[in-house]
Design a protein that fits this description.
globular, single chain, 4 helices, 5-stranded antiparallel sheet, 419 residues
């Protein structure tokens, strides 16, 4: 007997507008404008007028600093915008560092390619990238008082890959970046009160990252590193990839220190991407949301999913619920190049609603009114676009409650929850 699976692409959500735009890594919305950091050069950062959600239009575009960089993350506060600068195809290109050692083992280039999990034709590309090097990583600060003509105020170079995701407020930028002498991204905080002259005020890392300081990693490669840290009051909530997350005391930003730590068991295969506490208590207790990032899925292993943590006592943080999504929820699962599983949620938890992107699973909206039993109340899976099936990557919600869903490959959707 043949079974037919019926897919429901939308529930309790309707689309108000759509913009065919190159795929992006982050979207933030402020005062009628959406700011999109694109995944691939030559696209950089787009500023989009969304005051009419049925007809969004690009009013400005800022290209990357060079052809080897992407600027796929963006933050905005008032008239200040910060964009990252990071090596494009960084994980792929860094494989070039292993070629010499593999050849020294007597391996042919075909065998080297097999060990690196690349095509034989990629060996020349990796060698070219290694010879070229990369020293453009960092971040740029812009004056966006005129949305149609962003003005560059400063460009801070860091090291290695450069800057990944980050947070900011009126005083500080909390930057996730590689720095000389460390392995993997660490937290570097800058005073940006004078945007034309950012000043480094502190660094924080997981013990074992500071090679120049005599530390030795207890993990392989880049398995433990800062993804990014989010400021909440006098705390920073830092996702540290395969080491779970840390809570830092941020009351003195010249010397952030760990005040809470949680590591997921080895049975959880995917890394921690983002973690933040809800702004309000539920039943007198404090809860946080953590989300994994799905990578190359191996059959039989768990997908990346969402955790609900009771963090009332930072010395004893415990998971009270986990939320996952069946592969049957998306028609795109299993297609070449399609990822399925957790990735990111809206980084403002001002209610019990969590807006999360699930790659091929689209947007999922959860209600945590009962933290022990998360309930999905709405979802939206985009139709295939120029870049292929949905790879929903990031989401934001404006003050009017409209939802901005950004695809990794192509397209920005403006959505509205049905009441």
């Amino acid at each position: 007997m043949k079974l037919e699976v019926q897919y429901q692409l939308a529930r309790n959500i309707r689309r108000l507008g759509h913009l065919d735009i190159a795929g992006g890594g982050q979207v933030v919305v402020q005062n009628g404008f959406a700011f999109v950091g694109h995944m691939k050069p030559p696209m950089g950062t787009s500023i989009i007028d969304v005051r009419d959600p049925s007809a969004p239009k690009v009013v400005a575009h800022v290209p990357p600093s060079d052809e080897w960089s992407h600027t796929h993350k963006v933050r905005v506060l008032g008239d200040i915008m910060i964009t990252n600068v990071e090596q494009d195809r960084r994980h792929f290109l860094r494989k070039g560092e292993k070629i010499a050692a593999l050849r020294a083992e007597g391996l042919s280039d075909a065998d080297v390619a097999s060990r690196l999990k690349v095509k034989p034709s990629d060996i020349a590309v990796l060698e070219e990238g290694l010879a070229r090097g990369y020293d453009s990583g960092g971040f740029r600060i812009w004056d966006i008082s005129d949305k149609t003509a962003p003005k560059l105020l400063s460009y801070v170079k860091t090291h290695g890959f450069g800057v990944h995701r980050f947070d900011m407020d009126a005083r500080h930028a909390y930057i996730s970046t590689e720095m000389e002498g460390y392995v993997g991204n660490i937290l570097v905080t800058y005073d940006i009160s004078e945007p034309s002259n950012p000043v480094e005020v502190s660094r924080w890392h997981v013990p074992g990252q500071h090679l120049a300081g005599g530390e030795t990693p207890t993990w392989e490669g880049y398995g433990v590193r800062l993804h990014h840290a989010m400021r909440t009051g006098d705390e920073l909530w830092a996702a540290v990839w395969h080491a779970g997350f840390r809570v830092l005391d941020a009351s003195d930003m010249t010397a952030p220190k760990v005040i809470g730590s949680y590591e997921f068991p080895p049975a959880i295969p995917e890394p921690t991407h983002t973690v933040m506490p809800l702004e309000n208590l539920i039943g007198g207790r404090r809860y946080a949301v953590a989300i994994d990032e799905e990578h190359d899925h191996l059959p039989g292993r768990l997908h990346g999913f969402i955790w609900i943590m009771d963090v009332t006592d930072l010395d004893n943080m415990i998971p009270v619920a986990a939320w996952d999504l069946s592969e049957r929820a998306s028609p795109w699962v299993g297609q070449p190049g399609v990822r399925f599983g957790g990735h990111q949620f809206r980084e403002k938890l001002d209610s019990t609603l969590v807006y999360a992107t699930w790659f091929a699973g689209g947007l999922r909206v959860l209600d945590l009114a009962d933290p022990y039993l998360p309930q999905e109340v709405a979802h939206y899976i985009p139709e295939p676009g120029v870049g292929g099936p949905a790879q929903s990557n990031d989401v934001d919600v404006d003050d009017a409650g409209l939802i901005y869903l950004l695809d990794r490959n192509d397209g920005l959707d403006i959505l509205e929850m049905k009441t």
